[in-house]
User: Which sequence fits this backbone?
């Protein structure tokens, strides 16, 4: 038996879904939509129900493909899926009238409906008393009282669903509407009458767009005339729908619901007086954001270090027990490094999504989005884009995954596309290296700090500019509706929070993980082959022999350097040298920059190898590499001009600031947008921006300094 | 007087709702209707959006959206 869960956002629908299905849930795949539809299995008293959690909606008036998918599912119009056998309508008892609006629309579907009257405790706190049996009788539909967050009422719900058979009677509309519906139905006999009726009410909706596309302009003319005829004193038919439904609802529930004479002030009102206060609200907001941001940065680090340590331990074991050769290297440097580079993101993802789930669940997110709305709308976005952008300053991977909270498709896409510009923590090793080498000695004391700040600011300034341009060109469209309901404050439901964290982690591991692993292996191969020198002797063999003979470390490192420099990547680096010369780079910088396209942090390590410092960690390399840079000369001529000057260092930093050198980010973009086109677009536009930015900085800088 | 011009603490009764048909429809779906009383609760720090209350409904909306709601002010 298939059971669909329908209801307003904030009615507790997803909490109920989680309570019913627990871990037995997965995400359904629907082409053309970015909204996630969770499916689950609910086992109760020897019966198994197939649950489907439809996205929260206020009505069946679909304005976008994402909203339409829910309507199609309910009508059974989706390919390969029958209409649900039973519909559970989740309703917030403290907002009964408004939540029943959607329910009366569901009556027209001709399916049995059970109303889950949720949040009864909240209603009691507001002195609202509901006679559940009387309500069921008045509405003509079974009503079960539930408290999803405490898992109360689940058994009664199961019993009601099993015994559900009664199909509720739809509300009667004034005769003119019924007439017009009939006339249009006769014109389009193949379309469902539910959708036809909605056409009269939903102007410019997704439904209308699809049907007009299918049936042409003669149909759209008929529709327009029908709507004209239905205009009542100049008011639209949607007004008529609202008035008809609400007056029916009011007279139906009146004997069953007792309201207090004056509304009881709620805890939500009291809390909001502080949290939405111009001054205090902003202060609390800054504190919370700082907390979230700081946790991602710091709390994640010990965990990430453990993962890196584990990775190193594993690599050592592999090298100890296996003969040196391509396969061993593939395993150690390709696969283990690749898997490690995927898992290392997990702490950040879990922490960020833990916070997001808590903030969303307790109701604060909506207020935070309101606070930042004005600032974000200057860039053409909305308040909901703030947290994803903020998180991207630590790491774009969880930041982009967090764009789920942005309802509007074009806004979400824009945020995703500019998130990588927000300076992430992987850029820091490069900045640190170059600033330490070139902007400390012989420069004013404030130069290092200022340069670092400038690099961050480049991202913070370019991102909104790009967002604004995208909203004006590629992603142009009508301004979405920002009217938002502020939910009650409530304690977060820990079960839901944990389920959400696990769900996001799994999504990342499965979808992004495979792409990241693949690209790390490719880079490994490009740096490994050709593996033999001019005499056909394997470099690796030579190195392990030298290690066995206790040769001097610098000789081993020199051989390693020679090996990497003649690898495929090294050759490509030399080949593109003419292209990077205008940026002030030589081929070695070009090679390392290329190598760091999958992951920025690779830059320092690869540079270390090219300059014969061996395979070391970034922090070990900063000093020796800095010195090596200072003595580096073009074409290795000892008396030639220096490779690394201040303009070169700056151009390199600017390149890193603007370029998307992170295959994990691209993988996550692919996952969140569902297409390969957007990650490619991101890569291309950012590389172009980075190239021209670096070009500008070098050309202007070298003439000034 | 339109809703976007109201200051926090002020009340009014909705006379009419105009604007983009989808926007007006969303107002109806949320329970806002002609004849209902609304109160402005707060305005965000930079002047936009504003928060209003009507009965148990708490909404936040941009001033551009609120401009379509015409009210008669209660004293």
Assistant:
């Amino acid at each position: 038996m298939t059971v669909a869960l329908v209801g307003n956002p904030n009615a507790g629908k997803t909490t109920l879904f989680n309570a019913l299905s627990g871990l037995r849930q997965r995400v359904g795949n629907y082409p053309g939509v970015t909204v996630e539809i969770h499916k689950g299995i609910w086992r109760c008293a020897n019966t198994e129900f197939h649950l489907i959690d439809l996205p929260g909606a206020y009505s069946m008036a679909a304005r976008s493909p994402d909203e339409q998918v829910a309507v199609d599912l309910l009508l059974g119009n989706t390919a390969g899926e029958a209409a649900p056998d039973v519909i559970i309508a989740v309703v917030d008892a403290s907002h009964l009238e408004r939540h029943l609006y959607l329910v009366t629309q569901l009556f027209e579907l001709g399916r049995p409906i059970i109303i889950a009257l949720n949040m009864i405790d909240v209603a009691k706190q507001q002195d609202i008393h509901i006679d559940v049996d009387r309500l069921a009788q008045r509405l003509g539909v079974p009503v079960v009282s539930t408290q999803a967050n405490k898992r109360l009422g689940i058994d009664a719900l199961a019993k009601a669903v099993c015994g559900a058979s009664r199909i509720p009677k739809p509300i009667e509309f004034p005769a003119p509407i019924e007439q017009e519906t009939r006339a249009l139905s006769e014109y389009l006999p193949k379309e469902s009458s539910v959708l036809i009726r909605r056409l009269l009410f939903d102007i410019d909706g997704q439904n209308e767009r699809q049907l007009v596309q299918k049936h042409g302009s003669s149909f759209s003319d008929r529709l327009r005339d029908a709507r004209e005829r239905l205009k009542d004193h100049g008011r639209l038919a949607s007004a008529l729908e609202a008035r008809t439904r609400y007056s029916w609802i009011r007279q139906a529930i009146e004997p069953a619901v007792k309201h207090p004479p004056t509304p009881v002030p709620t805890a939500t009102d009291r809390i909001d007086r502080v949290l939405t206060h111009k001054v205090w609200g902003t202060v609390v907001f800054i504190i919370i954001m700082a907390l979230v941001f700081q946790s991602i940065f710091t709390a994640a680090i010990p965990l990430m270090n453990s993962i890196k340590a584990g990775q190193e331990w594993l690599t050592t074991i592999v090298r100890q027990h296996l003969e040196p050769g391509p396969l061993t290297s593939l395993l150690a440097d390709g696969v283990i490094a690749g898997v490690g580079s995927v898992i290392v993101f997990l702490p950040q993802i879990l922490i960020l999504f833990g916070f997001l789930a808590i903030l969303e669940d307790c109701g604060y997110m909506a207020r935070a989005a309101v606070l930042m709305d004005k600032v974000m709308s200057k860039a053409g976005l909305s308040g909901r884009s703030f947290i994803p952008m903020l998180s991207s300053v630590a790491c774009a991977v969880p930041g982009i995954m967090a764009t789920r909270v942005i309802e509007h498709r074009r806004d979400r896409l824009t945020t995703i596309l500019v998130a990588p510009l927000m300076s992430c923590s992987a850029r820091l090793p490069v900045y640190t290296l170059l600033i330490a080498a070139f902007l400390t000695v012989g420069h004013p004391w404030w130069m290092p700090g200022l340069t670092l700040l400038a690099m961050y600011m480049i991202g913070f300034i370019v991102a909104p500019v790009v967002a604004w341009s995208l909203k004006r060109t590629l992603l142009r469209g009508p301004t979405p509706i920002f009217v938002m309901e502020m939910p009650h404050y409530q304690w977060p439901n820990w079960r839901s929070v944990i389920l959400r964290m696990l769900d996001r982690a799994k999504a990342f591991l499965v979808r992004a993980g495979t792409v990241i692993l693949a690209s790390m292996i490719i880079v490994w191969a490009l740096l490994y082959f050709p593996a033999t020198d001019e005499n056909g002797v394997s470099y690796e063999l030579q190195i392990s022999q030298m290690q066995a003979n206790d040769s001097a470390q610098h000789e081993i490192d020199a051989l390693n350097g020679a090996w990497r420099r003649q690898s495929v990547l090294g050759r490509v680096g030399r080949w593109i040298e003419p292209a990077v010369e205008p940026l002030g780079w030589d081929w070695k910088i070009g090679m390392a920059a290329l190598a760091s396209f999958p992951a920025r942090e690779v830059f320092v390590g690869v540079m270390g190898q090219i300059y014969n410092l061996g395979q070391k960690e970034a922090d070990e390399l900063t000093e020796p590499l800095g010195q090596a840079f200072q003595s580096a000369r073009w074409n290795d001529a000892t008396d030639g001009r220096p490779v690394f000057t201040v303009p070169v260092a700056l151009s390199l930093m600017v390149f890193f600031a603007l370029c998307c050198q992170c295959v994990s980010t691209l993988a996550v973009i692919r996952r969140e947008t569902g297409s390969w086109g957007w990650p490619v677009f991101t890569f291309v536009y950012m590389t172009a921006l980075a190239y021209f930015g670096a070009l500008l900085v070098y050309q202007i800088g070298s003439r000034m300094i | 007087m339109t809703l976007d011009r109201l200051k926090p603490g002020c009340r009014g009764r909705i006379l009419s709702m105009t604007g983009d048909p989808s926007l007006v429809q969303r107002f109806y779906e949320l329970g806002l209707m002609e004849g209902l009383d609304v109160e402005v609760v707060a305005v965000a720090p930079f002047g936009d959006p504003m928060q209003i209350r009507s009965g148990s409904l708490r909404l936040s909306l941009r001033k551009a959206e609120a401009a379509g709601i015409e009210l008669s002010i209660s004293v």
Observations:
- Chain B is about 20% helix and 40% strand.
- The interface with chain A takes residues 20-31, 33-34, 41-49, 51, 55-62, 64-65 of chain B (CB under 8 Å).
